UniProtKB/TrEMBL annotation:
Domain PIN as annotated: residue spans: 1-118
Name the UniProt record assigns to this protein: PIN domain-containing protein
Pfam families: PIN
InterPro entries (UniProt xref): PIN-like_dom_sf (IPR029060), PIN_dom (IPR002716)
Length: 133
């Protein structure tokens, strides 16, 4: 059964009004899964724009969530784990972290003006020459 973001946030937040229902659903069903999109929304919820950092331990929270609610397709789990680490270690925004996570799990380069990708060691090709900024 596919679940979306409110299910994941209920599992992360001890005070969420849906927490008991989500836990009960996990106990009753063996086929609970989601997509990278639901985890993207969770990463956005973790991210505090005011301080430009993650309010909770994103890598640990995502790792724990993935044990309960896997991502289909499975290869996207590595991208989300990498994104959580990039969010925490390099202060990337959630979407930049996800883009970086997807690129690091493959053999691709990223074509972008975003220099934050350089800090995480991605093979980046500038969209425009760096000298024309």
């Amino acid at each position: 059964m596919y679940v979306e973001t409110d299910f994941l946030t209920a599992l992360v937040n001890d005070d969420d009004w849906l927490r008991d229902a989500a836990i009960r659903a996990l106990e009753e069903r063996e086929d609970v899964h989601t997509s990278i999109l639901a985890y993207a929304e969770v990463l956005v919820l973790f991210y505090d724009r005011e301080t430009a950092e993650c309010e909770i331990d994103a890598p640990r929270a995502i790792t724990n969530l993935l044990e309960l609610v896997p991502i289909v397709p499975k290869e996207h789990e590595d991208a989300v784990l990498a994104a959580a680490a990039f969010l925490d270690e390099y202060d990337l925004t959630p979407f930049d972290a996800l883009h970086a996570g997807l690129v690091t799990t493959g053999e691709e380069r990223v074509l972008s003006t975003e220099q934050d990708y350089d800090t995480v060691g991605l093979d980046r090709t500038p969209l425009v020459p760096e000298s024309s900024k």
